[in-house]
Write a structure and sequence with these properties.
Layout lengths: L2 E3 H8 L3 H10 L5 E2 L7 E4 H10 L24 H25 L1 H34 L1 H5 L9 H18 L5 E4 L5 E5 L3 E3 L6 H8 L3 E5 L4 E5 L8 E7 L2 E8 L6 H18 L1
Parallel strand pairs: 4-7
Antiparallel strand pairs: 1-3, 2-3, 4-5, 5-6, 7-8, 8-9, 9-10
Helix pairs in contact: 3-4
């Protein structure tokens, strides 16, 4: 067994004396005094190899060689033993590195994925450039046309027209209602004004009809809607949709708009319900 001083051990392991003493104490390695000088402390070369293996430190100089400063009276290790110690130290270091790499495969995988992503981004940029060049070459007139002069796509124009129509329909007030009450009397209900207080077929009745273009009638015999093209138009048209079929009948002029005539038209429309059911 070859004994080495702590100074030589520090040089072999590449550490300072305090670190070596801490390693020796932690590994319970026996420290032996020099046979001729008790102030010099040392450890066996095998223990130096053991410490190098524990802390994955490569040995700088093979322990037991002539240049290590072995103690007198100790038995130097053979060259084969020194070579074996070096190989053991290197093998331990390699095993530690392999374990570290095996425990973190995600880092290598992440680098590979990042490289692939970078390549895909470059290919995408090239494709976008080619598409832009193709568009510029195929439709120069459309791209050069000012924005205000470009025609609106048909689909967008249709959607815009539909929304405008719905908005106009919602904003249009409901037509006035002429209805028979439970008491048997007829009342007139008009939008925000509420119920109008005049009798049917009175002067106020005909004057009010002259200002209207449509109304709805709900009588004892049935119900229907009435309209005319404008306030200047004399003729009124009655209509009702029955089983997805719209019936239209001429009702007459404003001066003929009596309750009796309205009830007669309601009964006529109601007869169509019986025929189609």
């Amino acid at each position: 067994m070859t004994m080495l001083s702590l100074t030589v051990g520090c040089r072999l392991l590449g550490v300072d004396p305090k670190t070596l003493r801490r390693w020796v104490q932690a590994a319970n390695v026996p420290v032996v005094s020099h046979p001729s000088d008790g102030r010099i402390k040392g450890i066996a070369s095998e223990h130096v190899v053991q410490l190098a293996s524990i802390h994955t430190r490569p040995l700088r100089v093979p322990p037991g060689s002539a240049s290590t400063g072995s103690w007198p009276g100790s038995h130097p290790a053979s060259s084969s033993t020194s070579d074996e110690a070096i190989l053991l130290s290197r093998l331990t270091h390699l095993e530690t590195e392999v374990t570290r790499l095996q425990q973190s495969p995600s880092a290598v995988e992440l680098q590979r994925l990042q490289a692939q992503l970078h390549g895909l981004q470059r290919r995408l940029s090239v494709l976008e450039m080619r598409m832009s060049e193709a568009m510029l070459g195929s439709t120069p007139a459309a791209l050069c046309t000012p924005k205000d002069e470009q025609a609106e796509p048909p689909l967008l124009a249709g959607i815009r027209a539909s929304l405008s129509a719905k908005s106009a329909t919602r904003s249009t007030p409901h037509p006035p209602l002429i209805a028979c009450k439970t008491s048997g009397e007829y009342g007139i209900l008009e939008g925000q004004q509420g119920e109008l207080h005049f009798q049917p077929e009175s002067l106020e009745w005909f004057a009010w009809l002259a200002t209207q273009t449509s109304f709805r009638f709900v009588g004892r015999q049935g119900s229907f809607s009435v309209y005319r093209k404008s306030r200047t138009s004399c003729g009124w048209t009655a209509y009702r949709t029955i089983h997805q079929h719209t019936y239209k009948r001429y009702l007459g002029t404003t001066k003929l708009m009596t309750i009796e005539r309205l009830e007669s038209m309601a009964a006529r429309f109601q007869s169509y319900v019986s025929l189609r059911s």
